[in-house]
Amino acid sequence: MTAPARAALWFVLGTLCLQAAWVLTVPPYRGLDEHEHAYKAAAVARGDWSPTHPRSPDGWGDRLQVPRDVVDSAHPVCESLPYTTPDNCEGTSNGDGRTTVASSAARYNPVFYALVGSAALPFDGVAALYAMRVCAALLCAFLLGAAAFVLARRGSSRWTWMCFASVLTPIVLYSSAVAAPNGVELASAVLVWVGIVGLRRDSSRSPAPDRFYLGAVAMGGLGLVMVRTLGPLWLVLILAGGSLLLGRPRVFALLRSRAGAATAGLLVVAGVAALGWTAAARTNDPGGPLGVTRDAWAALPGGWAMWLFQSVAAFPARDEIAPLGLYAVTLTVWTVILLVGLRAADHRLRRAVALVVVSAVLVPSAATLLTHAELGIAWQGRYSYPLALGALLLCAAAKPPLPHVHGRLAVALVALTVVVPTAAVELIGVLDVVRGERLSSPLAGTDSWFVPPDSVLALLVVSGATAWGVAVAVATRSRHLEPEGPAPGRLTLEPSTLHR
């Protein structure tokens, strides 16, 4: 097995451990709107691919035909939520083992739901929900593992892996472990960004397009556009940032190649199909106004701060803030990466980061101004994070003059930059959620939710973070991989010099 494959395998194993901690931590259906996504998945897996459904008489979502056991198992948690209606939690029995129940996810693109819903077909009730979670987690782990393999493919430094690990915030791991499409969207965006950074790194070695990196962009792009309504917009903005990073000559060279043209054509077809579904289903139609009276412009500054924090952690619901230490660790790492990366960046990289940051602020701001009367501040930080995380991953293309270390010092540096921050933030998030849910969840003390001891959850988190550290060590110490660049002050000889 090659070093990149070993690194990717270790990274996937670590990701699965971290996801397992979240799967066990969050009570069934307690993930953000998870019962509504489970309804949609159960309906799609049983043949409901229609873009239109009857509107709920209670005004929240459209009505789907869902197995009674799924609705019954979701009822305790659904009923405890402040925004649900009887039509979301009880519905109307059809007398054939199915219930007509309302879901706000009824109009969403069915591709993701077909996969997770099919995985749950052999199961009933809560077991079906856990099957959906496992399927979603495996999809995300595969995409993130592919990104890790791409990162290690041509050789990588501890700096690039630090940038990579920093974007995998607790909200990413949490989202990847519940039965909802946002985790796949985030993991797909990471793969696209890593592919773009790979094209930038390769451009210094050969002008020929690299099919491997284009394949990563294509794979991630397909996942990005097909799971959520805003996916096509995020892909366009991500590719715009990538174009600034690569430069016009490199972009034109890629598009003129067969692999580049095929990638562009595939993504255009997928994007048009996704937009066609959105137009037919009228996805995310807000419905009637809620009568919000607060001025939208006055609400925006608070929204900007909220979106930043939600990109780090907000679970199980969007308004449930994590302990402040979690945000302090993550935002400190982000600040260091941006300061060091931008200082070492060239003008192309800086312009690409500026485009990403400005777009990640303007798009949710515009959406909020347009929908504030109907929805208030409904935007969430995780919605625009597929774009925003690119600011950090773009910094992986920089080559700051960091010291070259070996042996125990190298291991300590990996632990300090990857293992410790990951373990700290994930452990804080997991333990905070599970302790709160033990006290408040309607499923606490029932057979529907198996809650392992805190020590088991901590072991899963630490094991996952350690496996990530092993992946970094394997990827960065391999001698046969091409290095990022010569060490400062190290003499390099051209092959012709050796024969003189």
TrEMBL record:
InterPro entries: DUF2142_membrane (IPR018674)
Key words, A-Z: Membrane, Transmembrane, Transmembrane helix
Region (Disordered) location: 481-500
Lineage: Bacteria, Bacillati, Actinomycetota, Actinomycetes, Propionibacteriales
Protein name, entry field: DUF2142 domain-containing protein
Sequence intervals crossing the membrane: 130-152, 159-177, 233-252, 259-280, 324-345, 352-371, 409-431
